[in-house]
Design a protein that fits this description.
The structure holds two protein chains of two kinds.
Chain A (H helix, E strand, L loop, with lengths): L7 H9 L4 H13 L1 H18 L12 H9 L16 H29 L18 H23 L7 H27 L4 H23 L3
Helix pairs in contact in A: 1-3, 2-3, 3-6, 5-6, 6-8, 7-8
Chain B lengths: L1 H7 L4 E2 L9 E8 L5 E6 L2 E8 L3 E8 L3 E9 L2 E8 L8 E8 L3 E5 L4 E5 L4 E5 L5 E4 L4 E5 L5 E6 L2 E5 L5 E5 L2 E5 L5 E3 L4 E8 L5 E3 L2 E12 L4 E5 L5 E7 L4 E3 L6 E2 L6 E6 L4 E7 L4 E5 L1
Parallel strand pairs in B: 3-7, 3-9, 4-8, 4-10, 9-11, 10-12, 11-13, 12-14, 13-15, 14-16, 15-17, 16-18, 17-19, 18-20, 19-21, 20-22, 21-27, 22-28, 23-27, 24-28
Antiparallel strand pairs in B: 1-6, 2-5, 5-8, 6-7, 23-26, 25-26
The chains are: A mainly alpha, B mainly beta.
């Protein structure tokens, strides 16, 4: 079983500010003694900073409405006979823009991941184990590293909008991410007993892919 | 400029401001292209989308507390329908029935609204969080993504792609199926022949009970969830079944040939073995039986 004091999920919650004071205290004590987790924490905070630097207002390019609305805005006094102008509630607009920005952030992460995995795995778009079988065990290790990096980045994108998501949705997602993590842990245990087993390696990468898909969807949605 | 704009965009927009807390009946109709795009946004409540023969989109229904406006706009025959939440902070709900040209490409976006789509022949794309989604009829392609909502697709004729987190997925029909869930069940119980299926879960179970077309390929993957494959008696298929620690039960007849070097792997061939069925699990059991 994974060492409880080196728990990645807890560390992510710590960086996200989700822990209560007692839990934070325990994590700080652990960080003082664990170089690996300190490095992990620094990496998480760097990723969070990159997410925060993403543009906050970007007009969805596929939406014709902003241009039309701008034109209408200059003519409110005498709109065309067949058109009624719309004063769109600010809240609805910001919802759409924020969502688009976060989709962009998720897309950036996925594009980078796709480029990295494309060199390692025949078809990284598939989630069945056979389809994500890496060319070799060294490729497997590299692929898993890329998955973990991308997963961390996407989790931060998703976590940055936790205020928008309903607690019920977040709990469902959290529980299912735990299920995926447990599957990954079981597969790693099996791989430790049978190193290089290509069947287990491909199952493991398939689970990573599922976790990423879930985070991607969470990053692109709001509730 | 004004003339240019009027020539290039036929726009009809309707704003229905609502008194706070009131239930407001709405009825709007705008022109649409026969094979155009209809985008519908309704965060909560219910939504029924149905196809009809007219080149128009009609929206009827009720807007409840927390919905400030129903916006229906058409630009060059492309239509967007949106029940817009207000600034009150309440999550408003609307109950809408939208009729669209039956060959339209329809995109639905919701959070918790119940969605029912029927009578469409064009592509359908639904994004939801927790609302159940039910599709009946024969869209050329169906794509549904949700977190916890159950998804049911009946009588599909083409490509069906469904992703949930813990929502149950039920697919009846369709030739090209792709379904993924973490802990939700996936049930494929098709009346027609499947050409391609890719189903994956972590802990949910998979039931694949459908006929396979000649040359079909089905890939079923699970970590700990049980996988059950039920095929018609005369199916000609080659099975590759592997599981690290799950029990493999073959009720189809011939004994399995264990072929795996690393993990228990069984190969079975029925008839010409034209179709291919790949099943792989870590600890989930696998059962092969007649449908």
């Amino acid at each position: 079983m994974k060492e409880p004091e080196c728990d990645d999920v807890t560390l992510q919650d710590f960086v996200d500010g989700w822990l209560d004071a007692a839990q934070e205290g325990r994590v700080r004590e652990h960080l003082a003694a664990c170089a690996r987790c300190r490095a992990e924490e620094r990496q998480l905070r760097r990723l969070l900073a990159r997410v925060a630097e993403l543009p906050r207002t970007v007009a969805p390019p596929h939406d014709l409405w902003p241009g039309v609305a701008a034109r209408l805005g200059g003519r409110r006094a005498s709109p065309p006979a067949e058109v009624e102008t719309i004063e769109r509630p600010r809240r609805a607009r910001s919802w759409n823009v924020r969502r688009w920005v976060l989709q962009t952030a998720a897309a950036i992460v996925f594009t980078a991941l796709g480029a990295a995995l494309g060199r390692l795995i025949p078809d990284a778009g598939e989630t069945t184990a056979a389809a994500v079988r890496p060319a070799s065990s060294s490729a497997f290790a590299a692929a898993e590293t890329e998955y973990l990096r991308a997963k961390d980045a996407l989790w931060l994108v998703a976590a940055s909008r936790r205020d928008e998501l309903s607690p019920v949705t977040m709990e469902i997602v959290r529980r299912n991410l735990v299920l995926i993590d447990e599957a990954i842990w079981e597969l790693r245990q099996a791989l430790a007993a049978d190193p290089g087993n290509p069947h287990l390696e491909s199952l493991l990468l398939a689970q990573h892919r599922r976790g990423l898909d879930l985070l991607r969807r969470l990053s692109a949605r709001s509730a | 400029m004004r003339r240019c704009w009027r020539a290039s965009a036929a726009l009809l927009a309707v704003l229905a401001p609502l008194a706070a807390g009131a239930q407001t009946e709405v009825e709007r109709r705008v022109p649409a292209r026969a094979e155009g795009t209809v985008e519908i946004v309704n965060v909560a409540g219910s939504l029924v989308v149905s196809g009809w023969d007219r080149e128009e989109v009609e929206v009827t229904g009720t807007l409840g507390r927390g919905i400030d406006a129903l916006v229906v706009r058409a630009v060059r025959g492309e239509v967007k329908v949106e029940a817009e939440p207000g600034r009150s902070g309440h999550q408003g709900s609307a109950h809408l029935e939208v009729r669209v040209p039956h060959r339209s490409r329809v995109a639905v976006e919701t959070v918790s609204a119940e969605v029912l789509v029927a009578g469409l022949e064009g592509e359908l794309d639904v994004e939801s969080i927790s609302g159940p989604v039910e599709v009946e009829g024969d869209p050329s392609a169906v794509a549904v993504e949700t977190v916890s909502g159950d998804v049911t697709v009946r009588r599909a004729r083409g490509r069906v792609a469904v992703e949930t987190v813990n929502g149950r997925i039920t697919i009846e029909g369709g030739r090209d199926l792709r379904a993924q869930s973490v802990s939700g069940a996936i049930v494929v119980d098709g009346a027609g022949e499947v050409e391609r299926a890719e189903l994956g879960v972590v802990s949910g179970r998979i039931l694949f009970a459908a006929a396979l077309a000649r040359g079909a390929e089905a890939r079923l993957s699970s970590h700990s969830g049980a996988v059950e494959v039920a095929l018609p008696g005369a199916s000609a298929a080659r099975f590759d079944v592997s599981s690290f620690s799950g029990r493999i039960t073959n009720e189809l007849g011939p004994p399995a040939e264990k072929a795996g070097r690393f993990t228990p792997e069984h190969k079975l061939v029925f008839g010409s073995g034209d179709a291919r069925v790949h099943v792989e699990t870590f600890s989930g059991s696998v059962t092969l039986r007649k449908r």
